[in-house]
Amino acid sequence: MTNVSFYPIGTVGEKWGDAEKAAWFASTQIKRSYQDNVVTPLKAMGSQLGVLGLSVVQYGALSIDPARYPLFAVKSATFDPNKITVLVTGGVHGYETSGVHGALAFLANNAAHYVERVNLVVAVCVSPWGYETINRWNPKAIDPNRSFYTKSPAEESAALMALVASVPQGFDVHVDLHETTDSDEEEFRPALAARDGKAFIPGTIPDGFYAVGDTENPQDAFQKAIIDGVSKVTHIAPADDKGEIIGSTVVQHGVINYLLKALGLCSSVTGCIYNTTTEVYPDSPSATPAECNLAQVAAITSAIDYVLALN
């Protein structure tokens, strides 16, 4: 485990400047292949998706290496105004593996069940550089999942916002796929504290799946439907002895709420009524990578099923 009392970049109590951010960037390493693990499987689905009336579209590319990091989404080829419209986002935090591979698994195995009933947009890996370096931030030490607002400093977030804006009828459902990992506590939260010149206060990582709703629009029954669906695949995180999960009050089994828009979170990007952020725990001794991917798929399908049942 990383020594969380001291982060090796920067001066304790001082915010990072350009030199510290450059040193942090220099410390990152490519650890896996976005092209091999994400782009190639997605393109291999192209003909299968085409038969379903879905198209693989490029909606941008990262400036650090546009050829290496194109941004892809799968969209309904035509949008029917009489159908609900669903957005699925994976890999906003690139290191959160099951978000990316859960989105791919949904497209490969489940999308066919829904294409006649919903308009669909799936952004498989919003942060491909973060995917390759197994990182929460982008190359500029910016968290894309705190950057969904006007004039975003994160190009990953700005590109996704432009994609969302290109769908004029708007969205009814958004499922944003995430993980909470041991590395949050060991690496990423200490780095955040160092970057911002703050003291790191250790926390705890919940063992199991949980969902994050919107404090201003909680939609409790919708969140419960997701928890019920995921519980058939993997275990749900219990509240800690304070009745909390990662410092937030548990409002029902496996659910906490955040002020999504105020925090610039991805799940606020559409302004839709039914949105959720999934949080899978891949480091649990009781879960496998395959199980984590299936939990993400269960969250997507449970969310869509709930809203379809209302219409």
From TrEMBL:
InterPro entries: AstE_AspA_cat, Peptidase_M14. It holds the Pfam family AstE_AspA_cat. The keyword ATP-binding does not apply. Residues 30-304 form the Peptidase M14 domain. Keywords: Hydrolase, Metal-binding, Zinc. GO terms for biological process: proteolysis. It comes from the Bacteria. GO terms for molecular function: hydrolase activity, acting on ester bonds; metallocarboxypeptidase activity; zinc ion binding. The keyword Hydrolase applies. Its cofactor is Zn(2+). Belongs to the peptidase M14 family. This is Carboxypeptidase-like protein. It comes from Shewanella oneidensis (strain ATCC 700550 / JCM 31522 / CIP 106686 / LMG 19005 / NCIMB 14063 / MR-1).
